[in-house]
Design brief:
mainly alpha, 290 residues, 16 helices, Serine Threonine Protein Phosphatase 5, Tetratricopeptide repeat
């Protein structure tokens, strides 16, 4: 599903924040830090720029131990990504990996940053290295499978999803993504097994229902497909991806008014969504031509 694994990997990278906080508090207890550097992990209503400045001050000072500096780089990279400054985030991950080549969190985070930057091929070496160092790293298999799937290499993608599910049999993302890969590979019956399993494991996420909707479309059962997509939105009415999939489905059916309504909802939820504006504009042009 578009964005699912990307978000999972971003969350994994951001998850080091709690460890960062504990580390930097420990450092602060050992020696005094400047007021600016404490903003890197401060709790409160601080701007992203203030937090970046705080992390930069900590990195440039001699106050932190090496572990604290690594966490400051992680934190600053996370804030850069929030601003959309992906190259600067990658530079922070580069510095960590240059000093600590076996840091798996940094490699996973750098790979997910390349995905965020729409450079999937650049993510592959980091995923491969993580798998080499930790053959049971589910995130690396999911990330690499996502890259393979995006370039329509479904055999390799499915093989990586298989590995992820051997490690974590109840991983909903792996079931949904593998199901979608089977759909695109032309095997909707096999895909449905994964979709149904995803619903069984976690009916409250909506991913399995979306997966089933795609299978029904592949089988030509449009009524059941739309019913499944409707369920996803009932489950999570603020999930942009679910509206996007339904809008594209309406477009394929020639129901442009309903497609445009879904794109409008995406724009309402995320005013900066360029893809929604672009898709909505194309549908309006199609409607005028009709």
């Amino acid at each position: 599903m578009v964005g699912m694994v990307g978000r999972a990997l971003v969350a994994a990278a951001a998850g080091v924040g709690a460890l960062a906080l504990a580390t930097l508090i420990e450092v602060s207890a050992a020696r005094a830090e400047s007021p600016l550097s404490t903003k890197c992990n401060a709790v409160g209503n601080l701007s992203v720029d203030d937090r970046i400045a705080g992390c930069t001050a900590l990195i440039e000072s001699a106050a932190a131990m090496p572990r604290g500096l690594v966490m400051a780089h992680f934190r600053r990279a996370m804030f850069y990504r929030q601003k959309g400054e992906i190259d600067r985030a990658i530079a922070d991950y580069d510095q960590i990996i240059e000093r600590f080549p076996d840091n798996l969190n940094a490699r996973i985070a750098r790979a997910s940053a390349h995905l965020q930057k729409r450079e999937p091929e650049a993510a592959l070496p980091d995923y491969a290295k993580v798998i080499e160092l930790d053959p049971k790293n589910t995130y690396a298999y999911l990330g690499r499978a996502h890259v393979y799937s995006s370039r329509r290499d479904f055999v390799r993608a499915i093989a990586d999803y298989d590995q992820a599910l051997l490690i974590h049999p109840d991983n909903v993302i792996a079931h949904v993504e593998r199901g979608l890969a089977y759909v695109r590979k032309g095997d909707p019956d096999r895909a449905m097994l994964d979709c149904d399993r995803a619903v069984e494991i976690s009916p409250q996420t909506g991913g399995g229902q979306l997966c089933r909707g795609r299978v029904y479309f592949a089988k030509g059962d449009r009524e059941r497909a739309l019913a499944e997509l409707d369920q996803t939105i009932q489950i999570k009415p603020k999930n942009e991806n679910f509206y996007y999939f339904r809008a594209e489905s309406f477009s394929q059916l020639g129901e442009l008014d309903r497609a445009i309504a879904d794109y409008d909802r995406i724009i309402e939820l995320s005013p900066r969504s360029r893809s929604a504006y672009g898709c909505r504009g194309r549908r309006l042009c199609s409607k005028r031509r009709l």
